[in-house]
Amino acid sequence: MKALLILIAVLGTGICKAQVLNDFKYVMVESQYEFQKEPNEYRLNEMMIFEIKKRGISAFMIDDVLPNDFNETSCNALSLKIETRSGLRVKMIFEFVDCNGITVFKTKEGIGRTKDFEKAYREAIRDAMTSLDEVAYKYEKPEYVKTVEGAPIDSIRTGFGRPGQENLKNEENVLSEYQQFGVVDTVSMTSKDSLYTLKFKDGKINIFKNNNLIGTLKKSTSGCYLTVTTEFIGIGYEKGNTIIIEYDKDGTQFLVFQKK
To answer: Per-domain residue ranges for the chain?
Structure first.
């Protein structure tokens, strides 16, 4: 009987966690936390977004382009807070906090054991975020909240609350971000094995596999690319005249793109 009660308590806790998270549509990640010396140091913030999105939860950088319904009629977004300790090992705990400062979900303590700081932080993030695997997340929009399904991502956040319309990015501004690649009409970059191709056009970057469209790249204000495809979700970054996409599929994989 005691064992049965313990099992029921454990299952009940998991259900409660799922229900709380299901009430929120978005997670906001800071561009720089106290343990970092600069925004997105070691590309850790992009990695946090990557790990959250792997679990089906929409996540954005705090100064990124956001959907129109972001905290518009109610608190539908959580902010990501971090408790971190470093010594012989890097230890990190993530808290998902609502607009009232209440923690609705807290991960286990993730541990990075590698001596290299950058790798240790990455290990700790991956370890801590496995707590989200316990939650079968599925956003359940409250009935009293009126939102437009599929609202376009066309407004920029001016504070942790309702997005501001005064800083709208137009297509011309987005296009200018890619001028270093010589974008005028269509510019392509191919992977070393020629299996994958990036195509830049009209301020957008699409990724193709064997000439079939499989996803898109979205450049954040921190300069990295959130890569979402039908095969994987990853983080891209520029290095010289190349774009490198890092993703997790049977271990860490890399795609290196160069101009044709």
So the answer is: 2-156, 171-259
pLDDT of residue 156: 33
Res. 13 pLDDT band, cuts 50 70 90: very low
Common-topology check for domains 2-156 and 171-259: no
pLDDT tens per residue across span 212-253: 998 888 876 556 777 888 888 777 877 778 888 887 777 777
Tell me what pLDDT residue 237 has: 78
99-114 confidence digits (pLDDT tens)? 878 888 999 999 999 9
Which CATH code for domain 171-259? 2.40.128
State both tokens at 105. Answer: 């979900």
Lowest mean pLDDT among 27-36, 74-83, 157-166, 185-194: 157-166
CATH 3.30.160 correct for 2-156: yes
Give the per-residue SS3 of the chain.
Answer: CHHHHHHHHHHHHHHHHHHHHHCCCEEEECCCCCCCCCCCHHHHHHHHHHHHHHCCCEEEECCCEECCCCCCCCCCEEEEEEEEEECCCEEEEEEEECCCCCEEEECCCEEECCCCHHHHHHHHHHHHHHHHHHCCCCCCCCCCCCCCCCCCCCEECCCCCCCECCCCCCHHHHHHCCHHHCCCCEEEEEECCCCEEEEEECCEEEEEECCEEEEEEEECCCCCEEEEECCCEEEEEEECCEEEEEEECCCEEEEEEEEC
